[in-house]
Amino acid sequence: MLRLLPSNPVHTLASADRERGLSLVELIVTVAILAILSTVAYPIARFQVQRRKEAILRRDLWTMRDAIDHYKDAADRNAFRTSIDSNGYPPDLDTLVNGVTVQDHKVRFLREIPVDPMTGKKDWVLRSMQDDPDSDSWGGQNVFDVHSNSQGTALDGTKYSTW
């Protein structure tokens, strides 16, 4: 078999080496573009995480407040006994989870006390009917309302503790 050789073998090898790799300038440009893209993507990702936590907080607050309302409605219908000073509200959040006996059946109003997504703990701030509206401590008589213990600020500028 007859094989033809290129007229200048050194020139052919040098051009083949150049085509295989990246030059230093190309590498620097690529790294710069990736750095710019990552600096743009990081704040967007961070806000997405915060938005998700805020959505979870809103859902958890709604769920607990709904459970308190259902407990109050059942107490107002005399489905079970409550203490006179409770005004028909549960004595604590654990009562909503543990439930009460209604006509020989255990009725639970909440599956579990959720974790506050802003603090990472089950450290909800409770408020009773007897507490002042601006009070930051719970009097312990009953649970009229619940809110986050976080002192952080939401994306809309409000404090999580006011939700």
Labels describing this entry:
single chain, 163 residues, mainly alpha, two-stranded antiparallel sheet, two-stranded antiparallel ribbon, 3 helices, 4 strands, 44% helix
Description of the structure:
This protein is 44% helix and 7% strand. The protein is mostly helical. A hairpin with a 2-residue loop joins strand 1 (100-102) and strand 2 (105-107). The chain starts with 8 loop residues before the first helix and ends in a 16-residue tail after the last strand.
Overview in brief:
By secondary structure, the protein is mainly alpha-helical. It has helices at residues 9-20, 24-76, 93-98; strands spanning 100-102, 105-107, 125-127, 145-147.
Average of per-residue pLDDT values: 85
Task: Please provide the ordered H/E string of secondary-structure elements.
Answer: HHHEEEE
What is the radius of gyration? 32 Å
Number of strands: 4
The proportion of residues forming helix, as a percent range, comes to: 40-55%
Number of domains: 1
> Numbering strands along the chain, what is their spatial order in the largest sheet?
1-2
Instruction: Point out poorly predicted stretches.
Output: none
The proportion of strand residues reads: 5-15%
The computed structural class is: mainly alpha
Largest sheet: 2 strands, antiparallel
In whole angstroms, how far apart are the ends? 86 Å
Q: What overall form do the CA principal axes indicate?
A: elongated
Q: What's the tally of helices?
A: 3
